[in-house]
């Protein structure tokens, strides 16, 4: 699923597109399957997201009491809302089907698996969505191998661009 980059209109609001991305997740976790989940937000949270301000780098999703919750995601206060603002790091409910929740709960109960948020975006209908992935934590040697492969691919692309003149 390819989400476009931020589509900001003239007053700086994002109508649809990427709001936040967890770039570190694919480095720290081996991501298996991904799933698009809806997210329950208040009005000021949506307005803050439309300004493009959110951080999901240190967050995770947890199945608790028959529901899926996004924990530790930071959506800053919307400054124009004064006393009706939201709590910045409150747990937020994720919307998935019962079948998907049961499968995710079963996978998390296995050793080493966790539900990692990958991207927070607005879809074409303007609804906030969260792309979550089922991840298994990488060991340090796996991370070094990932870094080495990425560096080699970058060098290889540069060499090919120069015409192989090394």
UniProtKB/TrEMBL annotation:
Name used for this protein in its record: SsrA-binding protein
GO molecular function: RNA binding
A Pfam family hit: SmpB
Residues of the signal peptide: none
UniProt keyword terms in alphabetical order: Cytoplasm, RNA-binding
UniProt xrefs under InterPro entries: SmpB (IPR023620), SsrA-bd_prot (IPR000037), SsrA-bd_prot_CS (IPR020081)
Region (Disordered): 140-166
SUPFAM superfamilies for this protein: Small protein B (SmpB) (SSF74982)
PROSITE patterns reported for this sequence: SSRP
Stated family: Belongs to the SmpB family.
Any single biological process term in GO: trans-translation
